[in-house]
Amino acid sequence: MEEEDLSERWQSIASIMNRVRDLKNKHKNEDNVTDELNFTKVSADTTDNSGTVNQIMMTANNPENWLSFLLKLEKKGVPQSDISLLNRLIGRYSQAVAALPAEKHSQDESYARILVRFAELKAIQDPEEARDQYHLARLNCKRFAFVHIAFAQFELSQGNVKKCNQLLQKAVECCAAPQEMLEVALQNLHLQKSQLLPDEEKENLPGGFVTGHAGLGFRTPVVKNNFLPGGQGSTPYFQPLTPISASVPSNECIVVKGKLYSVLKQIGSGGSSKVFQVLTKEKQLYAVKYVNLEEADQQTVESYKNEIAHLNKLQQHSDKIIRLYDYEITEQHIYMIMECGNIDLNSWLKKKKTINPWERKSYWKNMLEAVHTIHQHGIVHSDLKPANFLIVDGMLKLIDFGIANQMQPDVTSIVKDSQVGTVNFMPPEAIKDMSSYGENGKTRSKISPQSDVWSLGCILYCMTYGRTPFQHITNQISKLLAIIDPNYEIEFPGIAERDLLDVLKRCLIRNPKQRISISELLTHPYVHIQAHLQTDTNGTTEEMKRILGQLIGLNSPNSISRAARTLYEQCNRGGSLDVSAFVNPDRKRGQRNDGQKCVSQDLSNTFDK
Fold it and tell me: Which of 462, 489, 522 is the last residue of a domain?
């Protein structure tokens, strides 16, 4: 009975996602099985032994068979250098994870290995999505030490030493086995080694699984100072270059259109691209985005050309769009000379324990202005997330237009080939409308400017509550179903800022026709603080005198800060303003008897003037 229920659930999911076309009745021919079961730009490949996949799913459907098939598939090449293979592998691993219920296989070592390897492959494309997969693996398979070590190694590779240590300590606390493996990892972390498990310990991992191995890298064309074209270096994907002092010339340089840029450090990476912070002879800082096109498919090449075209078009219309100063395109690579920022919004959010309301409001307005600009020029981004915004001198700027789409005049929506976007920020219509195929056989989804509003709402939700609306749902299929289910209520815990709560609720309406627009958001009271009209001017003056009199009674900077926060919250609630609770009683009596009358008189004279 349980198997029948599971089969019905799978068929329902498959029909919604349009990933598998009637595997049993319509696709007995191996060449017609769809390979796209993940949410990345994966091209269908009919040479991946689809018959084997069908057999696994229709018979045993167990982790052992899946893992055996997946490991054989990996032997066909090196996913770090073969983007096509990487996409196929991610698609197959995604299919395996979707087909294997966690509640049934959480104690299975092969299932744990599938989850870990899936996360490792995702890390080559998108570290943020990889982190979600590592969380999933650790949540479902916490008994296996290698799962925790893999996650910890990933965080270490991202420079998060504290997080790495926390993961290993929690693994010890939950008695993950073998404990000896965790002890070795902790010891190597304290010795500041880049690998938690040395080579001689790697065989202890089940099946030779290796976390954070050096193979996860791309060759980055750099030239020595003698400009020899053969001077190429190799940089591990997970290990940024050591920062170089601006006063010391770098041994690694990049030449774009004949101009020399000294590499200071690597500041980003993902897929087939890397981003470096560079310095010119004039001591000007830039960011250089390098894209390796040697193994890229046509869709990837077009996405980067698309990004260049959008940046060239939009940067002159808004200072909230990242600046592109120059670029170079060859058959082998793309170089983009761009404005260098301080930190992306995603990294900033991770470092912030609490967010100042004024910072949140300021960044929100920056995001709205940037997206409003692209919408005015007929562009739908379709993949907005915190990592797509860069903080430059205290201002948020929109970056990364790789999968943005141009809308034609007088058209309110467009249909995209294949599903794109990050699940935690994906609008319902991008999922529900994936019920048809384009001419190229890929699934299609209908999006509009309102789709970007939903994604922005998810970002603001994260800035308010510390997580996205559906982030707590770890199963990807369940998450997708919750996003499109009108009966699944999104939680909006109470907050002091009523206007902020109103914005969140109106952005996260599932029906895009009922969702608030960017233009409306730009005029919303949350963005523009409107003074309440007071008919009684004398009453307003007296109120101000009273508040200022209370503030005078505060000596401690901390008390002043707390009082200011309280006034802000009271103002948002629309209640009366009062900070007397922060004033020392003795101080209040002394002020009332001595100096406060004089101060009040001075204030009165000031307002009278």
Answer: 522
